[in-house]
Amino acid sequence: MPTPPRHPDGAAPARASRRRFLAGAAGLAASAAGGGAAQADPNNLPPNVPAWTRALGDGAGVRPYGQPSKYEKHVIRRDVPWLTATRESSVSFTPLHELDGIITPNGLAFERHHGGIAEIDPADYRLMLHGMVDRPLIFTLADLKRFPRVNKIYFLECAANSGMEWRGAQLNGCQFTHGMVHCVQYTGVPLRTLLDEAGVKPGAKWILAEGADAAAMTRSLPLAKALDDCLVAYRMNGEMLRPEQGYPARLVVPGFEGNMWVKWLRRLKVGDAPWAAREETAKYTDLLADGRARRHTFVMDAKSVITSPSPQARVAQKGLLVISGLAWSGRGKVARVDVSLDGGRNWRAARIDAPVLDKACVRFYAETAWHGEELFLQSRAIDDSGYVQPTKDALRKIRGVNSIYHNNGIQTWRVAPDGEVENVEVS
Amino acid sequence: MPTPPRHPDGAAPARASRRRFLAGAAGLAASAAGGGAAQADPNNLPPNVPAWTRALGDGAGVRPYGQPSKYEKHVIRRDVPWLTATRESSVSFTPLHELDGIITPNGLAFERHHGGIAEIDPADYRLMLHGMVDRPLIFTLADLKRFPRVNKIYFLECAANSGMEWRGAQLNGCQFTHGMVHCVQYTGVPLRTLLDEAGVKPGAKWILAEGADAAAMTRSLPLAKALDDCLVAYRMNGEMLRPEQGYPARLVVPGFEGNMWVKWLRRLKVGDAPWAAREETAKYTDLLADGRARRHTFVMDAKSVITSPSPQARVAQKGLLVISGLAWSGRGKVARVDVSLDGGRNWRAARIDAPVLDKACVRFYAETAWHGEELFLQSRAIDDSGYVQPTKDALRKIRGVNSIYHNNGIQTWRVAPDGEVENVEVS
Which residue on chain A is closest to B326 by alpha carbon? Predict the structure, then answer.
């Protein structure tokens, strides 16, 4: 045991916090001195004075809008060309394996579009609110900014996230299996405020939301949800929405599937029944084994994924291993996350990192030691409604394998003795 | 009053939520139809189908690392060339007036450097921990990533933020008067964990932190603070630190002045007394009127600023006006923010937007109606220690005007009848 540190006032800190994690000084020194990854002359590395301390750094003026380090060029959104990339319709995936915490940087937040990315001059932006209302209204962006606003951190997940996993483990990396999710802080007007401004007529039960993109993405939304927690948002992580996220304004529908968060929001129509638009009939319904289809499957059920280690983030070294991942639930807060090292036979509760927010991603960790044994890593989210993330097989038993939507099954990563990680299934 | 909206279950929502904010349908329709800002042919705007709905948007592949809209090019960090811009030493300011919520996007987070921006290959990164410890250690970046980690949202404020305001209102915009603050989510290892790994010797009371940049920024930090809540952080807002923020690792010293958050962190030395380094003697001490200097003024006291309206964000229109700003305290949580429209004669409590986190920025709002009258806008933060943000004059009475540091006085913006806003003082 190390000598207990002393506070300035002489009191020893609580003993429980004084465990040592790594193998000790020798192990660390060896790692530092003999690290195969080091590229500079060791004489130039600490404890010696490195080259970058001996010369003035880049000081050529302010960078008006900063960018990541040139050593982070691999941290990018990626697509799967054979899966979706056409000029009309595309999807990019968040590099979950390269991120930590709960906030997704705007430049790395996945995006899916069905008709290209609309480019809208904010001066020309209009939002029409009509239908079963007392006063049909058209809002400019400046109008929206004059209403009282709120800021909320929410996850957004595409209904098709993990869709390829219905038919077995296919894509080797959580960026591809689970990367259609992101979590940012939105700034916007509660939709309820706009509806109150227009005056909703008795008998109204649904709202149609329509995008201004070429696909005119159109979805029906229950009025109760609109009055509850939806926003018309124009900012993400403080700055204005990115073009691919619906600049200058989008719908935020907390906990509901991503395509209902209509981007480039152009029109809201209040009615008494759903509209049966293309994207809620031919698409975004879940075809079951018997040929019937589930529809209006709005809520994204509790789900989690281990982001590191994962196929794109192998285990580099024996010894202490931090297992880390994300969990979320469209029903509310994540109450617990369990982690298994042996494919679901034994579970332990993961450490959940604060803050735990309603309908937002939470970050979880499980620290362990790895000595080269084969692992089958799994995580399982439980939300505050009591819902437990199911196995893929349990989901298939009920829903079949026809659908590409709403797969929130437990994911398995196999860690091989050499530290490589692959997407597998266990039963 | 509008007709009360009905929930699908027939129950009317709470009456209190049904107030209308804007002038009504007529006013809005006029604003939409006659808005001088509109640039497109009105026939192309909603309710008609706009051009961007009739043509396919930009779909030429995925953007690996996304950027803001071309219409947001004015949202940038700025410098004040006559103030600081040399090749050796520079500072850029966060565009607070263009942001909302509490998260600062990484590309817009202010930065100050004293010897240029060091460029460090993460494979060559080393952190040395030595001095009064049982086991001197050198950590690689991979070593740091193997320790249990946490994620925390904290504000970082430069000690010299608002420094020019000691001698009166000078810079016309909150970007320049208050823009040396940002707030992001950090991922890192508790410094306590590293100290426990090394084993702190009895009698130790201070830590020296040294940067690997050409300035070798060096500060003394009380051991009690190091053991409390400091982090060695390598990520901000999920992705790796930006180069100008200390890539690949920096110190996080919650609530303490920014230059103690040593960037490009190279060395930590444990000792029994402060080191009296240049940046805590010749600089970053507060020269008083009588020639004595306050030193070790670590904690950033409670402070707030109205970010909109402000000199760079004028009032565009009469009617509903959202007053918005940021507040923070190095002592803990912000408990309350008051807003005055008349230069501090009358105060009302602002609405504080959740979440309220320890040593993080909070966003506050005060909604009002403006009819062209002259306003003297002020905000005043109160933290959970009971500390009340003082007036500038109260500060000057105690501290004189020799210092450029630790000015947390109440800021005043004058709103003129034409909506222009300027930095003024009232007494």
Answer: A238
DSSP string, A377-415: EEEEEEETT--BPPPHHHHHHHH-SS--S---PPPEEEE
| Complex ipTM | 0.91
- How crowded is the C-beta side of B420, counted as CA atoms within 13 Å? 5
For chain A, what is the radius of gyration of the CA atoms? Answer: 24
Which one, of B358, B407, B417, lies nearest residue B153 by Cα? B358
Alpha carbon distance A18, B192 (integer Å): 9
Tell me what pLDDT residue A87 has.
67
Q: Which residues in chain B are closer than 8 Å to A222, comparing Cβ atoms?
A: 8
**pTM of the entire structure?**
0.92
Other CB atoms within 10 Å distance of the CB of residue B55? 11
Question: Which residue in A67, A137, A267 is closest to B107 by CB distance?
Answer: A67
State both tokens at A24: 């000790």
Residues of chain A falling short of pLDDT 50: 1-19, 23-39
* Shortest alpha-carbon distance between residue A350 and chain B (Å): 12
The residue among A137, A176, A134 whose CA lies nearest residue B62 is: A176
CB B379 within 8 A of CB A160: no
| Nearest CA-CA partner of A89 in A214, A209, A220 | A214
The whole-angstrom separation of Cα A207 and Cα A192 is 12
pLDDT tens-place string over residues B96-127: 999 999 999 999 999 999 898 999 999 999 99
Q: Tokens at residue B231, please?
A: 């982090």
pLDDT in tens, B248-280: 999 999 999 999 999 999 999 999 999 999 999
Closest partner CB to A20 (pick from B20, B197, B324)? B197
